[in-house]
Specification:
With about 120 residues, this protein is an all-alpha fold. The chain contains four helices and no strands.
Length: about 120
Amino acid sequence: MSHRFKQQVYAVLLIVLIVLICFPLVRNWRQKAAVEDEISGFKAEISAKEADNQRLQGMISYLQSDASLEETARLNLGLKKPGENVAVIKEEESTSSVQAASSDTESNYHKWFKYFFN
């Protein structure tokens, strides 16, 4: 065998060896990138859950406060503080209920006549 042929064989074997080493390295690099993407997604989810937790903690502290108790007593039970004046505003009857009351006194014949000709 010539010296040049041996060098070519060694070069081909070296290239094959490098390719065989590179395949697992590339596969591991891709897996690492996928895992890092998944970790960043979990970190974003954790920060969102922490924000929700802070909001819920604020709501819990408000609901346990005296202000919440006072608001509930005022709205649901109609209570007031001593010396406080309460004004009640009545709603006017809607026009549809007034019209319904007036149409009850009409005869059925008049109702059908209005339905078809008005």
